[in-house]
Amino acid sequence: MWNDHLPIWFIAPMATVMVLITFFPGAYDLYLSLIKEPTLNVFAADFVGLSNFSTAFSRGGALHSLIITITVVVSALILESVLGFVLAALVAGVGSGRVKSFYRVLFIIPMAVAPVSLATIGRIMLNSEVGIIPYVINSATPFTAPAFLSKMPLLTVILMDTWNWTPFMFIIFYAGLSSVPDTLVEASRVDGAPLWRRYVHVIIPYMKPVVFVATLIRMIDLFRTFGVVYGLTQGGPGTATQLVSINIYEQMFVNNQVTVAAAIAVVYLIMVVALCNIVIAKVGFDGVWD
């Protein structure tokens, strides 16, 4: 009897910890979203129903920040996935082991930079007066460099995140490419398949589990983006780059609207969890590994 339930007993401690650190904060956040203002005595709180949710969407900018966040997530995810795969394919095609090692280290460097440092470097490099990027554009091309942070802040944020996190996709895709059996690739080459057909019909289908996991992890992480965007633009100019994470921060610490911030967080949590479940249900872990 004991042996039959032994795996459950081994899993139980960690499962209990995971429930406590995920369920309790989520339940408390839901509680905050339903009351007028937080109090030490939770039983004496003044419940207001869905009033905070109404405020969040009517005056809290929740819908706008959701649209901005989804735009950033979709755009950055596509760019990072494509660039990461292209870089991985190029490095995997290099014959020399030392050259491969050099490029692997080189491409990982951006991911090692702290978000605050990256934002600071980005602000300096993109500055219209002293930035190296506007200087190169103005001096080496016939075009005039735009004011990146004021005229095209959303695009700047997306490109900065792409530069920062493409190495993550590169690492995973490179590992996936390295796991593809040489016999499969060689067989397709012998059959006369051109390079693009080998990738479309042999390599990428074999890498489907890797692509799925990398995309899912990166999508979840993109929904959590805060540091780089806040350091670059602080959600501005205006609310042009106000992600949901920045909106929650400002509602709580700038506007002192704790319950409104909690309401936005509840909506955001439900949306992200639902989206991840839809992706998993449509693609499916079982279907990926079939």
UniProtKB/TrEMBL annotation:
This is Sugar ABC transporter permease protein. InterPro entries: MetI-like (IPR000515), MetI-like_sf (IPR035906), Sugar_ABC_transporter (IPR052730). It comes from Haladaptatus paucihalophilus DX253. One of its GO terms (cellular component) is plasma membrane. It is a multi-pass membrane protein. It holds the Pfam family BPD_transp_1. Signal peptide: none annotated. Belongs to the binding-protein-dependent transport system permease family. Its main location: membrane. Residues 66-279 form the ABC transmembrane type-1 domain. One of its GO terms (biological process) is transmembrane transport. It is found in: Cell membrane; Membrane. Keywords: Membrane, Transmembrane, Transmembrane helix, Transport. The chain crosses the membrane at residues 6-28, 63-93, 105-126, 162-179, 199-217, 258-280. The keyword Transport applies. PROSITE patterns: ABC_TM1 (PS50928).
